Amino acid sequence: MKFWEIGKRNLKEIYRNPILLGFLLGMPVAFMLVFCAAAGGGQASPIAMSIVDEDRSQTSSAFIQYLGSIEAIELNEPIYSEKSQAQEDLEGGRISFYLFIPSGFEEAKQAQQTVNLELAYKEADRMIGLQVKPIIEAVGSEFLGVAPPLNVELKGAESKIKNVVVNFYFPGIAIFGLMILISTAAGIIAGDREKGFLARMFTTPARPWDFILGYSLPFIPVLIVSTLIYLGVGMALGLTVVGNLGHAFLIFFLIGLCSIGIGMIVGSLVKSESQAGVSWIFIVPMAMISGAWFTVEGMPSAIRSVAGALPFIHAIDASRAVLNGSSFSAIILDIYWLVGWAVVLFAVGIVLFRRTMVS
Amino acid sequence: MNAVQTLKLTKKFDGLVAVNGVDLEIKKGELFSLLGPNGAGKTTTIRMLCCLLKPTRGTASVLGHDVVKTPFAVKKLIGVSPQDTILSERLNCWENLALIGKVHGLSSNEVTRRSKELLETMGLMERAKDQVRKFSGGMKRRLSIAMALVHDPQLLFLDEPTLGLDPQARRTIWEYIAELKGKKTILLTTHYMEEADFLSERIGIIDEGRVVALGTSQELKTNLLEMRSMVVSTENLTAEVMEDLQSKYSRLEKVKGRLKIYHKDLDFKEIVGYLHSRGVTVYSAALEQPTLEDVFIQITGKRLRD
To answer: Is the complex ipTM higher than 0.95?
Structure first.
């Protein structure tokens, strides 16, 4: 149980350092407050949306009614029946975008097939598309159920999601916040290396895994508390948890473990606390391509492939799905992916750390 | 079996030879000092023996275990007090000692018992519950040595144990180390000749990565010192007298009005008599006991602190 002794030491070093502790626990609160303030919290200004209903079915009408019930959306009147008319208004600048519900919408829903919607906007106003798309996705998935399997169930006119913008962006922002554990964990190892404490400990019979586990251990309570803060502050500021909160917590916990694992790797590679700042070179791009701040659909396929191989996009997608109501079976592959990554990252950390024990 | 045995131990860093073919044999229970100036290779040698550095060439074994092949067997048997006083600054004395003790496999009871003994011996009991970041350099150094001892190791490495301490704190540490004499094998590195002289049973003088002399303090002084020295306080010392003395004796040094004469066979009476005969007033004269510094100068041609 050498790792436990090293872990206890690190735990005390962190928790008796008020600045570090304040950063670790205060940062999630500050992060969420700023995010929710920026995202509009519970008072987001509604987005004026035009709709073309080519299907003109009961389902499409219910869907439009459902969209209208969302606080973040204000439906423009009238509802277009012809796409060409809406296109003319878009080009004439009378509307900024429109949602096209094609004919066959009801049939596709009933046949449990993929439902295609079209969001039309001017190419110059690409940000509108990027902003509205996740809202439509969130509302649509709630209305239609999340595929696969397509479990269509009309949930009535009242949406459970209070603020779709917060629900869409929250997972990415919270996971980006947990990614900061990478630099913190790396910094603590690198600091001990720089001060010579690790060299002293290397003269004891402690093994590489004792150090990796010992340096990870104090971050587990930090991770748990941070996740609770993210979820708690998020919910207080408009986040709606439709699905299972425990499943969401599990996803955040697993991605936090992955972040600590990456921190262990970086900490094994760098020699000083200042060098640990190099981890930001990975954190920011990883957050960007994983959809922490905006959707990945518009990215080139090569970037999407890289993002898909990393754990973060899986955590963001899975937590978003769970928060919006998906069942555990719908996210199980993402869970496997995260567990696999955590195991690999810690194993690599141990191998790299072993190399630093003798030079 | 020797406690430490090295054969042609060598360490190079990017072409710089830090330790160059060191052969050492340290017996069990011996207090052995490596004496040399900064950068001589003392710490590098210790770091290889503690399994922190892999030798570029040569072999080293500690208590019968090869430092490269079986490092964890070595680490179980040694205690190390590094040159820089490295402690967990936000832990107190008990917690620092418990960390090292428990990582070495001691039970909680054993750790408590050993820690109590050591804290009392080192005079730290009164401050034992304070975080060590509030300690003075001397207190930290004492705790560092206690941490190296908490698991009762067979071999103790003390790397510059009094570096940067004031004379009083240094003397206190010397007393603690002296108490361990005969109870443990100790390998101490220092660049303070008084420290090596006061504490060691045998001394290895190391310079530029090589052990240039080895023996007891007395052996080094008597066997290696070809020259002895005499210090004379004088007045009216003329240039002619100095020239005359320079022609007769190996080396002369004038320091703060005092004349220091080096020669193989110094004759006290002859020198004083000669100075009187030349009208030089002699206030005092004394033959000097050779020091390890003299030995070091004799061997390397430079001072320990150069």
So the answer is: no
